[in-house]
Design goal:
single chain; mainly alpha; five-stranded mixed sheet; 45 helices; elongated
């Protein structure tokens, strides 16, 4: 077969046309002695060209011919290959798809005979046929050889298209069943005494139990053992354990013929820590008392496969009621979805884009969605109780639990992805779910799926398309039929029954499913464009609502917002077209009462949740003040001006609360903020800036109406407490001092009267009942407290503090900072109080004792009766008061010589104390963690309940919502409380040492 130099032979060209990638090597192989008689036969070349990898098929064929026992055997193989098309297609198909099976044929060259017969009974073998195929195996090595021979016949029918992917998976499961029986028989034959003591049942779970096994997969099992009549139970269980362990080794251990597959018993009760074999009663007791949601999900596919099948059936029958009652467990849906998210999170970043099984849009997404629906509705509809994914999906569609179009798309996608998985594993018979990145492997994979034109590009495109379908549908699958249940469907289309819809909503966590269905009907019914968009949005929104502690409130408020904005052209378009807006809205509406209440007073603020509406980033104080002052200028009077300013405040409170909620919950594209301190600083800074801007606008409105452009006296507002410290919460009052200084030539009495009127009018206007939340001004920290005048001159403050000030007043001045009004006057006020709050000589022992006495008295007198001190975020041990008084005592004692301590902010002062060596890094970290957590608790309570509070709610749903805000999943409120107590206890230990003992 030589050709002239420089010219390609006609065979070379033909080989290229037939799909060979290395025609030169193929020519040499075809010239070998074994193929001399058939190398020009067009039948052979056509058959090789039809395989997934012609080069691989030819190499495998040459190896098989070379391995034959003499010329007669070689000739028989060649004659049969050329004359019998079924054998030719099956043998070459396997050789072109599986290097591992080619290796098997080279080691066992007569096994090609298993592919010769082509009778109808051979096309769909079951467990009995496979048991006959394994019957002669008498040790682990011969069992592996017989297993591979049976596997060869399945692979041959698979690659030739005689059976489709679901049949292939079912045959692989049947072969696994027969293999487990053979392995158990070998184990029993090796230990007949053990076999005589016990009844042992092998229950398959996972893909083997579901009759949908891969070519290479762990076979998940659990073992059930009982003593035979008259035998001691403990001895019987030990015997059963030895048999089970031996059976597992027979299948799993590597021999000269490799291994079969690992037998995995880790899904048993207590996992690896539990006994390998239990009695039926022990299994039942565990599942009744201790099992987690995922364990019931695993039992969906339980099927007796080997050993004592009657005992296996008893096991399945006993556990079925528990499996189909799992959906009634608290947080059932959340648990299943959390488990799915955890699987995705554990995928290495380098693999996630190639993961066929576990990645987003992969096989596991379909399986989880189907299993979730089965568990919810299977308790009342036995037709759904199939362990096979595609059968269950078909039953769900037939019953109206899943839309027919969605089910058809998922079925198609699942079959394609499983076919890819089968072909990937078949190549080397290795357990993998990664799509290869080598072009030759991708080419073979594409051709094996009959994608012959540009196989690599076509395969990639089809894979991504199917994964996209799964990604889009797997969560909506659960929610969309709820809409179909209340909408008009096409004639003949099955719908979710009212009872099934109720079951599904309860499983999702809705407390009032009837009301939820009414809301869905109001939103999604009809033929309007608005209803059509809602039907597109709601399946996703329902999932996000269900991920919260109060899905009912989320759906109800969404209906109210939609009713209020439904006629505006931009609202639904915003939710549909801007990726962040819909999810942000769902999170905000279902997180508690405060943010939805703020939104409902001005629903157009929903625009802030989109990508282009200014976003959720809090606005700088200067911008806020500029907007409020402009609104005041446009107003006809002070009432209108302050009303406008309060409207801006309401909108910005909504922006801040929404940013806080979204940052705390996270979104699908952005994980929750890991730095809890950053969220506290965001809220404290934003609300404090907003309060300062509101006071500035109100001051301008009052002065403008009463005195025109100029007040007879300079006027400044000094922030105190949390306000001065930039640490205001959503429900905090504004602690302030009012200071004035008459202009030159103005009578002091006239100035004082004007200043007093300003204060009174500001307080009145900011508390007028309206749709906007009031801003309460608290001036009780002024000299002489409630008995003293509301406003004083700078000289009066100076005289009072110089002569009469008490320790607590100097203590309170640590937070004093100018927030509004005359900047120069405010600066001079803070300069005047600096020597008081940062005394040059520090504090004497008497002053320190007085501060400690004040702190102790506050703890005993102000703690509400009946409150649990350990859970009181403000006054309890390790709470805000403990941390702040400890930090402030450091400031009073060392602020004069440590400039870093001269700040009104707790966290900054704590960091400065650590930098100055006044407190250890560990102690500072402990106090900071406790202060941040306590502040977050107070913010959470306000967000959830809509009113301020310092203790955790007692209503379970509200407590759950606080937990979600703090990063605890459903059902983990107890963990949250325990964590708070631990954090506060550690902080209190530091406070005991530093505040009461040292410093």
């Amino acid at each position: 077969m030589t050709s002239a130099p420089g010219r390609r032979s006609s065979t070379f060209t033909r080989l290229l046309r037939h799909g060979f990638t290395d025609p030169s090597a193929a020519e040499r192989l075809l010239d070998s002695a074994g193929l001399a008689l058939v190398r020009n036969d067009p039948v052979l070349l056509d058959a090789l060209g039809a395989t997934a990898d012609p080069d691989l098929a030819l190499r495998g064929l040459v190896r098989l011919l070379e391995a034959q026992d003499g010329p007669t055997a070689r000739q028989e193989l060649l004659d049969t290959l050329i004359a019998a098309k079924p054998l030719r297609d099956r043998l070459l198909g396997v050789l072109g798809a599986s290097e591992a099976l080619a290796d098997h044929l080279a080691r066992h060259p007569s096994d090609w005979q298993a592919l010769v017969t082509y009778e109808p009974r051979d096309l769909h073998p079951g467990i009995e046929e496979f048991e006959r195929g394994l019957a002669e195996a008498d040790d682990p090595v011969s069992l592996r050889v017989a297993y591979r021979r049976c596997l060869l016949s399945i692979a041959a029918r698979d690659v030739c298209g005689t059976i489709e992917v679901a049949q292939t998976a079912a045959e692989l499961a049947d072969l696994a069943t027969a293999t487990l029986r053979a392995a158990l028989a070998l184990a029993g034959a090796a230990a007949p005494e053990d076999a005589g003591l016990c009844r042992l049942a092998v229950i398959a779970l996972g893909k083997c139990g579901g009759h949908e096994l891969n070519y290479v997969s762990d076979v998940d099992v659990v073992f059930v053992g009982e003593a035979v009549d008259g035998a001691d139970e403990d001895k019987a269980l030990r015997a059963a354990t030895r048999l089970a362990a031996h059976m597992m080794r027979i299948c799993s251990e590597t021999t000269v013929e490799g291994s079969i597959w690992p037998v995995d018993a880790n899904l048993r009760p207590e996992g690896r820590n539990g006994p390998l074999v239990r009695t039926l009663a022990s299994h039942l007791a565990y599942y009744q008392r201790w099992a987690k949601t995922w364990e019931f999900q695993a039992l969906l596919k339980a099927r007796p496969v080997a050993g004592d099948l009657a005992l296996g059936e008893e096991y399945v029958a006993a556990l079925q009621p528990l499996v189909w009652g799992a959906a009634e467990r608290e947080n059932f849906v959340a648990d299943v979805q959390k488990m799915r998210r955890r699987v995705v999170e554990n995928i290495p970043a380098a693999e996630i884009d190639r993961q066929l099984k576990l990645g987003p849009g992969g096989l596991r997404d379909v399986e989880f969605a189907v299993q979730l629906l089965q568990l919810v509705h299977g308790r009342s509809d036995a037709s759904l109780r199939s362990g096979t994914t595609l059968d269950a999906l078909k039953a769900l569609a037939a019953g109206g639990y899943v839309g027919r179009a969605d089910a058809a798309q998922l079925d198609d996608a699942y079959r394609f992805l499983r076919s890819m998985e089968h072909r990937i594993q078949l190549h080397r018979l290795r357990r993998t779910h990664l799509v290869p990145d080598d072009e030759a492997d991708l080419r073979r994979l594409g051709r094996s799926l009959d994608l012959r034109t540009d196989p690599v590009a076509t395969l990639t495109r089809e894979w991504k398309r199917h994964a996209s379908v799964v990604r889009r549908l797997h969560e909506k699958l659960f929610y969309r039929p709820l809409l179909d249940a209340v909408a008009a469907l096409a004639p003949g289309e099955a719908r979710l029954s009212a009872e099934a819809a109720r079951e599904r909503l309860i499983a999702l966590g809705y407390a009032d499913p009837a009301a939820a269905l009414r809301h869905l009907e109001a939103l999604a019914s009809g033929v309007t464009r608005k209803a059509a968009i809602q039907r597109t949005l709601l399946p996703v929104l329902l999932g996000w609502f269900a991920d919260s502690a109060d899905p009912d409130a989320g759906l109800l408020t969404f209906r109210k917002v939609s009713d209020a904005l439904g006629k505006t052209p931009w609202y639904l378009r915003l939710l549909r077209d801007e990726g962040a807006a819909a999810e942000n809205l769902a999170r905000v509406l279902s997180a508690g009462r405060l943010a939805p209440d703020l939104l409902m007073r001005a629903p157009e603020a929903v625009a802030l949740l989109g990508d282009g509406g200014g976003g959720l980033q809090p606005r700088p104080r200067a911008h806020l003040e500029q907007e409020m002052l402009a609104a005041v200028r446009r107003a006809d009077n002070a009432v209108q001006g302050v009303t406008a300013a309060r409207g801006v405040r309401r909108r910005e409170l909504f922006r801040t609360s929404a940013a806080d909620i979204v940052g705390s919950y996270g979104t699908e594209s952005q994980p929750a903020e890991a730095d809890q301190g950053a969220l506290v600083d965001l809220v404290g800074g934003a609300v404090s800036d907003l309060t300062a801007a509101t006071l500035a606008g109100t001051l301008r409105a009052v002065v403008r109406e009463g005195w025109g452009d100029t007040l007879p006296t300079r006027f400044a507002i000094i922030g105190m407490g949390r306000f001065g410290g930039h640490e205001l919460g959503y429900g905090s009052d504004a602690d302030v001092l009012f200071v004035h200084e008459p202009h030159d030539g103005v009578d002091e009495r006239e100035a004082a009267e004007a200043a007093g009127k300003v204060v009174a009018e500001m307080r009145r206007l900011l508390q007028i009942p309206s749709a906007d939340p009031p801003l309460l001004i608290d001036a009780d920290l002024r000299p002489e407290g409630k008995s003293g005048p509301l406003v004083r001159t700078l000289k009066s403050y100076e005289a009072y503090y110089r002569r009469w000030s008490l320790v607590w007043e100097r203590h309170a001045l640590l937070r004093a900072e100018h927030v509004a009004g005359d900047e120069d006057l405010g600066r001079r006020f803070t300069e005047m109080v600096d020597p008081l709050r940062y005394p040059a000589a520090g504090l004497d022992e008497e002053a320190v004792r007085e501060i400690r006495r004040l702190k102790a008295r506050m703890e005993s007198e102000r703690l509400p009766r009946g409150a649990d001190p350990k859970l009181h975020a403000k006054l309890g041990p390790g709470g805000l008061s403990d941390v702040e008084w400890t930090v402030q005592l450091l400031q009073l004692r060392h602020g004069a010589r440590e400039p870093g301590l001269r700040t009104t902010r707790t966290r900054q002062a704590l960091a400065a104390a650590r930098a100055a060596g006044l407190i250890s890094e560990d102690d500072a970290s402990t106090l900071d963690e406790a202060w941040v957590l306590a502040t977050r608790v107070r913010n959470a309570v306000m967000l959830v309940r809509g009113r301020a509070g310092d203790t955790f709610p007692t209503v379970p749903r509200e407590l759950g919502a606080v937990g979600r805000y703090l990063g605890y999943g459903p059902g983990h409120a107890g963990d949250m409380l325990d964590a708070y107590r631990r954090t506060a206890r550690r902080a209190r230990s530091v406070v005991e040492e530093l505040f009461y003992g040292g410093l």
